[in-house]
Write a structure and sequence with these properties.
Helix content: 40-55%
CATH class: Alpha Beta
Radius of gyration: 14 Å
Largest sheet: 3 strands, antiparallel
Bound molecules: FE2/S2 (inorganic) cluster
Number of domains: 1
CATH architecture: Alpha-Beta Complex
Structural class: alpha+beta
Number of strands: 3
Length: 140
């Protein structure tokens, strides 16, 4: 299987791996295709992601996707972080092998859950997932 140098770099040197004590939001997402799990912790200040960390119990592509996704949302507004798609993460990694694209969906979904966990704790309505959002983007 061919992984880009960026995937290998983020897999071997993951950024933002770990946990945040007393996070403002936590998102846990499992991949129904393989049973792997990703956990995202966020700290929010002034409506921005002030800190983000991840724990991924999964394959190398999922770890690389989590690492890249956390780098991409760090410092962003919650609205911007919500818009991060698994496609953008895969592109930032210079692509994933087709059979591994589903692994990057975990990051997008776990971030959404963390943001909504934060919103609910603030007494706000959770944001809705875009209608028609698929869990498997392999055909795109
Ligand atoms: S094979 Fe499970 S997330 Fe990649």
């Amino acid at each position: 299987m061919d992984y880009s140098e960026k995937v290998m770099d983020h897999f071997e040197n993951p950024r933002n791996q770990g946990i945040i004590e007393n996070p403002d939001g936590i998102g846990v997402e499992g991949n129904p295709q393989c049973g792997d799990i990703m956990k995202i912790y966020i700290k929010v200040a002034d409506n921005r992601i002030a800190d983000v960390k991840f724990q991924t119990f999964g394959c190398g592509a999922a770890i690389a996707s989590s690492s890249m996704a956390t780098e991409m949302i760090m410092g962003k507004t919650l609205e911007e972080a919500w818009e991060l798609s698994n496609k953008a993460v895969a592109q930032a990694l210079d692509g994933l092998p087709p059979q591994k694209v589903h692994c990057s969906v975990l990051a997008e979904d776990a971030i959404h859950r963390a943001i909504n966990d934060y919103r609910v704790k603030q007494g706000l309505e959770p944001w809705a997932e875009k209608p028609g959002k698929k869990h498997c983007h392999e055909s795109e």
